[in-house]
Amino acid sequence: MKQPNITMFVKELSVRISREVKVGSIHIIITTVLCLSMALFVVILAMFINDHIRNLKTEDFYFPQPNTFLPHSPSPSHSYILCNSSSSSTSHLPQNSTTIGIALAMEIWHSMSDEELMWRASMVSRIAEIPFKWTPKVAFMFLSRGPLPLAPLWERFFKGHEGFYSIYLHAPPGFTKEPPESSVFFHRRIPSKPVEWGRASMIDAERRLIGNALLDFSNERFVLLSETCIPLFNFTTIYNYLINSNHSFTDSFDDPGHVGRGRYNKRMWPTISLSEWRKGSQWFEVHRNLAIDIVSDKIYYPVFKNHCKPPCYMDEHYMATLVNKLQPERNSNRSLTWVDWSKGGSHPSKFVRKDVTQVFLDQIRHGFNCTYNGVTTSICFLFARKFHPSTLQPLLSMASS
Ligand SMILES: *[C@@H]1O[C@H](CO)[C@@H](O)[C@H](O)[C@H]1NC(C)=O
Ligand SMILES: *[C@@H]1O[C@H](CO)[C@@H](O)[C@H](O)[C@H]1NC(C)=O
Ligand SMILES: *[C@@H]1O[C@H](CO)[C@@H](O)[C@H](O)[C@H]1NC(C)=O
Ligand SMILES: *[C@@H]1O[C@H](CO)[C@@H](O)[C@H](O)[C@H]1NC(C)=O
Ligand SMILES: *[C@@H]1O[C@H](CO)[C@@H](O)[C@H](O)[C@H]1NC(C)=O
Ligand SMILES: *[C@@H]1O[C@H](CO)[C@@H](O)[C@H](O)[C@H]1NC(C)=O
After folding, report:
1. Membrane-spanning residues where (predicted)?
2. Which residue out of 236, 241, 361 has the highest number of ligand 3 atoms within 8 Å of its CB and is therefore the one to mutate?
3. Residue 376 CA: which ligand is closest?
């Protein structure tokens, strides 16, 4: 009884095996065909990409030559960003892949959103030593409502100090007038947006200036200026004062009055408490480390934007409070920009031609006492505002003497 059963089983087994072998060979064939067609596809794709890259190369887009980004370049969209060497970033950089990498980053810059700009600007190298020769620079950031009537004074101020400074100009978006190529302000405008004084858009403009200036890693100090500001000393003195200081210079004080604590909004709590709330002049001077903190701030900025609206003026409280929260010990709590509030009112005095005398300027230059790196000094202000365009001629003639 068992015999036939076993034969049947063996037969069945052999049939099944042969069927499986057939199915297996079909699998192998299908796999081979698939592999072949995949390989063919990859080859075609590679040829296509290769072709494409060659096209891009010929358009100088993918691997731009460094000189594409100099102001002499025929394409304004490039030169817009990277100014020459005279005041700029690349002058002391090696002209090789590093330069090209930076140039490529700059190329992207003018089309960046604010968010993307802040993100890029907030990056920090984890290698402290820069592997080539560089000079720390001071970034002079002009937040202007239009042209710079005192530009000739600044031209004279910067003359001969190329490589020690960078200039950034945030002008209204419609303002497209470009100074002559010989000017230090040539191609220094950054992409801008409309600014409403006292509103968040003003802080946005300041952050945009800092963000742009941070992209140049040789900028160590960041000064905010307006079109009515003047320098009170020569470049060397101002440069040394800033570069050698251990502190930032951001005006920050606790004003118990209604224009100080009175502008605090309870809804800011617990992010900002009343005792942390500060007031101060808008015109700051910060070191790089604090500049990175400012563009990286995602905690305090939204609170201010939502709860500090006129009669709370964000430009009078945001930096002052932020610095007090983030780096109180590294701030001098004073501004370097002199302004005259003695006449009262909501705007400081504006000076015209007849006000500008040697005695007047010396009074601002040496008439105060303050602390610098822990030592008392009479040089407390490096800049002054607000100067009417009519002061240009007397200021120029005094500067030359
Ligand atoms: C641009 O930089 C180069 C090299 O530093 C210099 O020779 C040239 O004069 C500069 N051009 C301008 C317009 O400043
Ligand atoms: C770039 O140039 C500098 C100086 O010209 C050189 O020391 C450095 O090795 C170069 N780097 C590369 C990646 O070629
Ligand atoms: C800049 O001013 C300082 C102090 O007033 C003076 O000693 C120095 O010679 C001046 N430098 C130049 C280049 O004029
Ligand atoms: C600035 O003020 C903060 C607190 O408001 C304080 O901690 C810091 O020591 C002050 N800085 C200087 C240089 O006095
Ligand atoms: C500054 O300090 C000096 C010396 O201590 C003093 O003679 C001078 O009157 C002070 N100036 C002011 C404006 O306080
Ligand atoms: C500045 O700070 C550094 C490090 O914090 C310190 O070594 C140096 O002595 C300080 N300089 C002055 C003038 O306070």
Report:
1. 21-49
2. 236
3. 5
